[in-house]
Specification:
- There is one protein chain.
- The chain has 352 residues and is an alpha/beta fold.
- The protein has a domain of 219 residues: Vaccinia Virus protein VP39 (Rossmann fold), CATH 3.40.50.
- Helix 1 crosses helix 8.
- The longest helix has 16 residues.
- The radius of gyration is 20 Å and the shape is globular.
């Protein structure tokens, strides 16, 4: 876990909630619903039930139609499928909380790092527009690690922080590694939290759990997360785990290309990315165990295996072709990480 702000206070959020109050939520850049599932709670993954949180999502929005189809299918309520820039602000209901993971490609170390100079880099201003409209008690914004270090500087995130603060909020941010919270994946993401100044509340973040899942690793490993799925391709009882849900992109001998490798069994997976074809890593297992370095025996991770590594429960079904469902999974906030962040915000708002 990497701390950015020395003023950040970490608390244990796995205790009973201090209040019965339910907060209403507006969700922006919702995608297929990873962060929304975490905020809502009431899901089971890896044998653990993450209890329902006292948040009620009353409005959601995303621009990508396949992600919206997945969202509707799993949450059983509507999502406005449109460019947020074209959404009439007066159609968005007032809510207690605004959450959003504004698009991150222009801040990603894997991208071109255009930052605020690019059109997508300006989309945080749309979230600011909604915050100004709703005047919520608090907001949560999520983005990639690269937001904290564009061209060797934290100037970009400080600008974003100050823009939100001008709306009347105390704002802080912190960088988290998802594997510190029970996610079997190394995934670093920054969360920006704001609480309205007039509430005089402290902002808390969740303590890392680092549960001892095995004797070899302080984190949950890829093997513990997905090993049971290896020989179950085309099992009709498993969503998004057919031969059509596995990228057929070739592996290339001796080439150092993104995705031209296999994940390790005994540690968390590398970051699941929002790409298809040759950028999806290979499974640590092989169809040729006598010669594990023979690339002809490798296969890439299925959509369901990627979803498991993102901590989506097995009953969460992704809609669309694999080229799109891989993208949905990779763009999502891991629900388990979202659950911890949401509970910390609940404690921030209700703790005396």
């Amino acid at each position: 876990m990497i701390e950015i702000n020395e003023q950040t206070t970490f608390i244990d959020v796995e205790r009973p909630l201090p209040s019965d109050r339910v907060f209403t939520v507006v969700s922006l850049f919702s995608g297929c619903g990873g962060k929304d599932l975490g905020v809502r709670g009431d899901f089971t993954v890896f044998g653990r039930h993450y209890e329902k949180n006292n948040f009620d999502i009353i409005w959601a929005n995303d621009i990508e139609k396949h992600a919206c189809t997945t969202y509707r299918h799993n949450f059983k309520h509507d999502i406005v499928c449109a460019d947020i820039k074209n959404v009439d602000i007066n159609t968005i209901p007032k809510a207690d909380i605004v959450i959003g993971g504004f698009p991150c490609q222009d801040f990603s170390v894997a991208g071109l790092r255009k930052g605020l100079n690019a059109e997508r880099g300006q989309l945080y201003l749309e979230m600011k527009r909604v915050v100004e409209h709703c005047q919520p008690l608090a907001f949560i914004a999520e983005n990639v690690e690269g937001l904290t270090n564009i061209n060797g500087s934290n100037e970009t995130i400080e600008i974003i922080k100050e823009d939100f603060a001008k709306c009347g909020y105390n704002v802080t941010y912190n960088l988290f590694n998802a594997c510190d919270y029970g996610v079997p994946q190394t995934r670093k993401r920054v969360f920006i939290i704001g609480i309205r100044k007039d509430l005089n509340k402290n902002i808390y973040f969740p303590k890392p759990v680092r549960e001892q899942y095995s004797t070899d690793s302080p984190w949950m490993t890829a093997q513990e997360a997905i090993d049971d799925l290896w020989d179950k391709l085309d099992d009709p009882n498993i969503f998004n785990h057919t031969t059509k849900d596995v990228s057929k992109a070739k592996f290339y001998e001796g080439k150092k290309l993104q995705g031209n490798c296999r994940i390790a069994a005994d540690k968390p997976s590398v970051t699941i990315r929002a790409e298809h074809h040759g950028n999806i890593e290979g499974h640590y297992r092989t169809y040729n165990p006598d010669n594990p370095n023979d690339i002809t025996g490798w296969r890439r991770l299925s959509v369901r295996e990627c979803a498991r590594l993102q901590t989506f429960p097995d009953n969460f079904e992704f809609k669309g072709a694999a080229s799109n469902t891989y993208k949905q999974v990779g763009n999502a906030v891991p629900p388990v990480l979202g659950w911890y962040i949401a509970r910390a915000l609940y404690f921030s708002l209700t703790k005396e």
